[in-house]
Amino acid sequence: MTQKLADYKVLTFDCYGTMIDWESGIWDALQPLILENKREDMTRENTLRVFAKIETAQEISTPDMVYSDLLSHVHRDIAKEFEITSNEGLDRDFGLSVSHWPAFPDSADALRKLKRHFKLVILSNVHREGFAASNRKLGVEFDAIYTAQDIGSYKPNVANFDYMLDGLKSDLGIEQDKILHTAQSMHHDHVPATTVGLNKAWIDRQNLSNSDNWGATAIVDDRPDVNFTFSTLMEMAESV
């Protein structure tokens, strides 16, 4: 395995969980539902775990659904799971919440550092409009952007990675051995990236190396090996 970051030309990124603090964004966007139902027992950890289960199932059952609509369905089903009451307005607002999800404090500075050395590419489960809103928080221009809306399926479907790899080869002339896939999520990214043979950098923002707090991502029982592990994106940028 290649073990120097400088050996790569392209960093392909997941966005949500890696650059954007989607867990805080999701939790904040669920507060109107929790307040409406006066559910003081709905903790962040438990609610995010339910979100992970429902979102994963929804992405499998409706792979061509635009992410904002998918989130609305997820919100409705979270309410059903906790046996509380939602409505169309609350479901819709949650579906549109992606634009309000905050960037991690280090993301913009780290991306600008990495941009000096690599082409930067996005492979995201969020729709084009949602990512455009997030991109305004990240402070760099990406060299290519591939979303689930473009592809018609959601990660961890390997079709998303095949689509990206085909695009990078045809549009930018980049071969796979010069690509390092960089992500937080084992479930969405590192498992399928391993399947297609990509080298990988794990941004372990959840500190899963030392805990079992999977948050808003589905649990992976057998974690694949990765080439690099960093606790933050800035740690990665400063190691180049």
Write structural notes for this entry.
The chain is of the alpha/beta class and 240 residues long. It folds into two domains: 5-21 and 103-238, 3-Layer(aba) Sandwich (Rossmann fold), CATH 3.40.50.1000; 22-100, DNA polymerase, domain 1. Helices cover 45% and strands 11% of the residues. The chain has helices at 22-29, 31-37, 44-61, 67-81, 88-95, 107-115, 128-135, 148-151, 158-172, 186-195, 233-238; strands at 10-13, 119-124, 144-147, 179-183, 199-203, 228-230. Strands 3-2-1-4-5-6 form a six-stranded parallel sheet, with helices on both faces. α7 (128-135) links the parallel β2 and β3. The protein is globular, with a radius of gyration of 17 Å. The protein starts with 9 loop residues before the first strand and ends with a helix.
Question: Topology of this structure?
Answer:
Layout (H helix, E strand, L loop, with lengths): L9 E4 L8 H8 L1 H7 L6 H18 L5 H15 L6 H8 L11 H9 L3 E6 L3 H8 L8 E4 H4 L6 H15 L6 E5 L2 H10 L3 E5 L24 E3 L2 H6 L2
Parallel strand pairs: 1-2, 1-4, 2-3, 4-5, 5-6
Task: Tell me the span between the first and last alpha carbons.
Answer: 17 Å
Largest sheet: 6 strands, parallel
Shape: globular
Class computed from helices, strands and strand pairing: alpha/beta
